[in-house]
Structure formats: C-alpha cells, structure tokens
Amino acid sequence: MWFEAISRLKVNLSKTEAIPVGEDILMETLASVLGCKIGSLPTSYLGLPLGAPYKSTRVWDVVEERFRKRLSLWKMQYLSKGDRLTLLKSTLSSLPTYFLSLFLIPKRVCARLEKIQRDFLWGGGALENRPHLVSWKVICAAKKDGGLGIRSLAIFNKALLGKWLWRFANENESLWKQIISRKYDLQDGGWCSKGKDTRVKFWKDLWYENQSLEDAFPILFNLSINKEGWVVEAWEEDGVGKAFPILFNLSINKEGWVTEAWEKDGVGSSWGLRFNRHLNDWEVGKVKNLLNKLHPLTIRRGVDDLLQWKENKNGIFSVKASFFGWEAAWSRLLTIDQMKRFGWSIPNRCYLCKNEEETIDHLLLFCEKAKMLWLMIFSLFGVQWVMHYSVRRNLLGWHGSFVGKKREKAWRAALLYLMWTIWKERNRKAFDEVERNDQEIKSIFLYTFVNWARVYIEEHTFSLIDFVDWLAIK
Question: Is 216 in the same domain as 140?
Fold first, then answer.
C-alpha cells in the first residue's frame, strides 16, 4: 500500500475500516481483498467527527460523556465546594477546548454541559436535587465582579473561533486559507466575496453565522486598527459617529468609506470631512477634536488590509511578551547554547551579529543589534546606564524613579519591549531567513515603542518629535 511504501510503517488491517462514500459497489470484495472491515459514516477520526453535520448535537456526545466520567458521584460526595471549584476550573473547563476551537457549540449542548457543571458545583445530580444558590451567569463573572471566574462555554467558544478570523487575516500562505478563498471566490485581499455588484463589509455585514462580527466579537472589533479602505465605514455606529453625534448628523456621506475621507492636496494627503452646511463657531471646536483624533492615522493605498492589536490601555504587557520576560529572567529561552544542552548538534553562532556564540545574555544585552537599541533608549531618556552581566540582574535592577513619575512606566516598558524586539528579529532571521538592516530595526522599534508609550501620556495625538521631547523632560 502507498502508506506503507512511503512511511515504512505497517498498517494494522484489523483496526482499519473501508468507508464507502456515495455508491458502495464491490465494497465487500474490496474489504475481503484488503482484509479490513467495512465502516460507515458518521464516524470519528483522530478524535474528531467525520461525516457528521458540524451543527449536529451528536458531534458533542463524546464531550458530554467525558464530562460525566470526570464528574463521577464519589467525587461529588467527598469533595468540598472549594475542591469542586478547583476541579471545574482546572479540568472540566479545558475538556471541550479542542471541539470548541473548531465547531460552534449548539445552545442545547451548551445548556446540557453547563447543567452538569452546575450540579457538580452545588452537589446535586440525578440522585439528589440541591438548590443552585447563585445564578450561573454570576458564577462565570470575573472575581473582581463578584463571580468565581469559571469560563462560560459559549463565550469561550466565540473567543476560540475568533482566533481563526485573526489567522485568516494574517496567514496568507496557509493552505486552509487558500482553500476557503478559492471556494468562496474572495477578492480584495480576502476581505469580501464577489457578489452581485455589492461589497461585503467585514465587520458590519451579516455574513458570519447570521450576525455581524462587530456584535459577535466586540472586543476584537474595538481592538482592531488599520481598518483602512472599505473594510470599515468612516462613521462607525459605535465609533466616530457615536463619539461625535452632532458631526455625524451633519456629515454628507454617512455611509462613506474611509478612503473617501482621505483626500490628496498639493503637498500630500490629509483628512477631508464634508458637511451639509457651514459650521457654527461652537461646532468648529468639535471638528478640531475629531481631526486631532484622526491625525495619527494615515491611509496607505495599494496595501492589503491588516489586523493589529492596539496597546493595552492598562499598561499590562501581552501574555506572550510577559511569558517571554519570565523565560528570559530564568535563562530558559531556547537559544543555540540551550539547544546544544538538549542534544542538538548545530554550530553556535549568533544569528544577528554572527560574531559571538549565541547565549541569552549575549543576544539580549551585548549583541551589536541589542547594543544599538540600548544606546537609543538611554539617549531618549537622557540617562547613563551600566549594564549588568546577566538579563536577570538587569530585570531585577531596572528601577526608574530617577526618570520622573510620569515617565517611570515608559522606562519599565522599554526594557521588556527592547528584549522582545531583539528576540523577534532573531527568530525572523533563524526561521524565515529575513534580515533587516539597522535603520529598519530602529524604526520599527521606535514606532512601536511610541504606541506603547501612549498608554502613559494624557495627550495621545503627539508626533514623534513630541514623544522625544516628552521623554527628555524630567
């Protein structure tokens, strides 16, 4: 057989099934020749349903069975409420993750699974009917909001499915995206499908499960930027139009696209807003405020639409960057010297400078590319700094009280973001074989650092020069 010839692995025919699709002519003869059994659809393959409608409740039978097995009666009897809560959070909420990331959970299935969780938490079940003292909605709320922090299966399902939207926007070379694009005849970078002389709005139209993505994923919608072109309207229902309702009512084209508000002038391009009458004196100030908000945003024509995350307004780093910092502090980044410890036989040379052996301390502190960014940071803040010999020592000693109260958070952010930038450049060179020059690295670092620093500055419309001046003022 082809599988055996290519993989050199023998097929266990006693566990193999021949499943007919459509007409089943000569299936018995084929099964007799191969020495296997005859199966039928629907079935399961690698833990996933095969041949069953994805909206069918039968798909979730295996998940419900796992729930009931894990919540056996003796566990309910001998565990306290605190222990039950721990089990719910650590185990039961993770059981259906694989299915939730691929299928939209039916409401009936969600209700059944949550009932199993509720009965387990309160000690009830088939043999005993105990009252549920607090509503499940309150229990699923965050602890700061008075809940217990248990995951809501429906919300968790939406979050996992929303990840595919993010991947669809960024993984242009993925086979699965190419298949979807060919099947639905997508155009304009994959943001809309060809139709009867109409354009599908990515966030606003009802093309996803009979609802708009704005309603289905409000957090993702609010965090997305670079919605240039026709992807999003210039006057969003919950965006500019809501923030400036008077100007929205005066706008000539309330359904206009962003590119229609971006006009070319003699020097370059700028935002041009058109209203249906002359503005009163008190309305001019509102237009000024609106243009100040639009000032940092520019339209890049001829460039594919791109999804990006805004900076966190609470100043907390992303989970990925924070976890990276934790790994770096414990010297557990997978640099070449660490890989050699695990038995990899590869030459040890820094991917960025190509002069020294690659260690965590060298890569993040003493590599030529890293030194270049460290000097930039010290110059921006106007300080002199002696680097410690290890990443851990620098993380522990990176105090910023001397730069002033307003700039202290930006100073603390600079350390982690600089290391994160170097690590991403290293991986880009190692895995994608893409190498940026020094000017590109500094530009990318400074541009993104400005966006991160906006969190700590009251005025968010500052230019790059204003940002440099702000850092220099103590």
Answer: no
